[in-house]
Amino acid sequence: MKRHPSPAPGAAPLLEAAGITKRFGRYTALDAVDLSIHPGRTVSIVGESGSGKSTLARILVGLERADAGTVRFRGRPVRGRRARQAFRRSVGMVFQDPYESIDPRLTIGEVVAEPLRAHGLYRDGGAGRVRELLTAVGMEGVDADAYPHRFSGGQRQRVCIARALATDPELVICDEPTSALDVSVQAQILNLLLDLQRRNGLAYLFITHDLDVVRRISDEVDVLMRGKVVERGSAVEVTREPRHAYTRGLLAAVPASSPRERRIGT
Ligand SMILES: Nc1ncnc2c1ncn2[C@@H]1O[C@H](COP(=O)(O)OP(=O)(O)O)[C@@H](O)[C@H]1O
Ligand SMILES: [Mg+2]
């Protein structure tokens, strides 16, 4: 796995989005959202269901088009076919539901190889690369020729993470990657993501409705309410002393973490 170099202090943002606006009919799902993520850092987006988090993720990764706004990656606008293609290689995506986001007709090895094939990177060393990726997500013993139905939700999410890492992205967008999983498995997946970040110098955009998760894993947080960023700050500040009533409401909805859970992320 490629390790991305540690960012210099004061480094330019890896990803910068400005004025992202998206309408579905007359409904404005995103209203001039700005966002910036620095190399090696984790920015969380929190907000209740329907606040526009997934729409923002899909726009940033290029699965959906904004009605207005710009995305810059490493200082350059992501515009035009070539820039988009290069961008797609540099950004991985992990979705919420590891059942829906895997094609059940593919073996798990084929699932992990998908981005390599899409970018013409599979070639001869592909099988070895797939093995390396599965190992990186803690699935070293598994049969790459097995079909997804044999695996649990947590293992499937590991496969999805391996797929997201296939092209050695510098940024991974995770859209509620643990919320469809059993509570007992959630911490393992979060710890895996943290571990991969440390080892590979990844930046994350981490979408969640859980401020407890934000506190454990992120540097900064943007609070999204009905398509608008209403609060932004360091994860510590925002979760300790939220300024906006909406953020306080989100915090109140989260049960205090147990002492055992507190070990996570340390
Ligand atoms: N393809 C779509 N067509 C119409 N409305 C949509 C579509 N996708 C999302 N929306 C609406 O946009 C809003 C934000 O959705 P979403 O981004 O999925 O929110 P979140 O991920 O925060 O739960 C919701 O009101 C949702 O119903
Ligand atoms: Mg969503």
How would you sum up this structure, described in words?
- This protein is α/β, with parallel strands linked by helices and 266 residues long.
- It has one domain (15-263): Rossmann fold, CATH 3.40.50.300.
- It has 9 helices and 10 strands.
- The protein has helices spanning 53-61, 81-90, 108-118, 126-136, 153-165, 183-200, 211-217, 235-240, 245-252; strands spanning 15-24, 27-37, 42-46, 68-73, 76-77, 91-94, 171-175, 203-208, 220-225, 228-234.
- A 6-stranded mixed β-sheet has the order 6-7-8-3-9-10, with helices on both faces. It has a 4-stranded antiparallel β-sheet with strand order 2-1-4-5, with helices on one face.
- Strand 1 (15-24) and strand 2 form a beta hairpin.
- The longest helix has 18 residues, at 183-200.
- It is globular, with a radius of gyration of 18 Å.
- It starts with 14 loop residues before the first strand and ends in a 14-residue tail after the last helix.
- The model is unreliable at 258-266 (pLDDT under 50).
- Bound molecules: adenosine-5'-diphosphate (ADP) and magnesium ion.
- Magnesium ion binds at residues 53-54.
